[in-house]
Amino acid sequence: MIVHHVASQYVIEMQLAQLAASGRAIEGVGWDAVDGINAKHAAEFSGATKTDALALLRRNSAAAASAHPRADG
Q1: What is the pLDDT of residues 55-66, one digit of tens each?
Q2: C-alpha angle with apex 21: 19 to 23, nearest 5 degrees?
Q3: SS3 letters for the chain?
Q4: Given a cut of 50, is residue 48 above it in pLDDT?
Q5: Among 70, 72, 73, 67, which residue's Cα sits nearest to residue 19?
Q6: Can you give the pLDDT at residue 3?
Q7: Neighbours of 64 (CB within 10 A)
Q8: pTM assigned to the model
């Protein structure tokens, strides 16, 4: 399920964004690594339900949002 996959990547994407924003190099994240991560996720979570996906989306989007520095706070 696409929603489950996207939700599972929020935390990793925030980590990469924070690395890039800090000026540090992002290493070891080539297309082969991305393809491997995608294939592993598809195999491990092929039976994920809509309920599973939405729960993961809520959890990981909240974690990603809390890691984002607020311009207004």
Answers
A1: 999 999 998 888
A2: 75
A3: CHHHHHHHHHHHHHHHHHHHHCCCCCCCCCHHHHHHHHHHHHHHCCCCCHHHHHHHHHHHHHHHHHHCCCCCC
A4: yes
A5: 67
A6: 92
A7: 18
A8: 0.75
Residues 27-41: tens digit of each pLDDT: 888 899 989 999 999
Q: Which residues lie closer than 8 Å to 61 by C-beta, 6 or more apart?
A: 7, 10
Range 4-28 burial, b when 16+ CB lie within 10 A, else e: bbebbbbeeebeeeeeeeeeeeeee
**Residue 61, token pair as written in the block:** 């989007």
9 Ramachandran zone, left/alpha/beta (phi>0; psi -120 to 50)? alpha
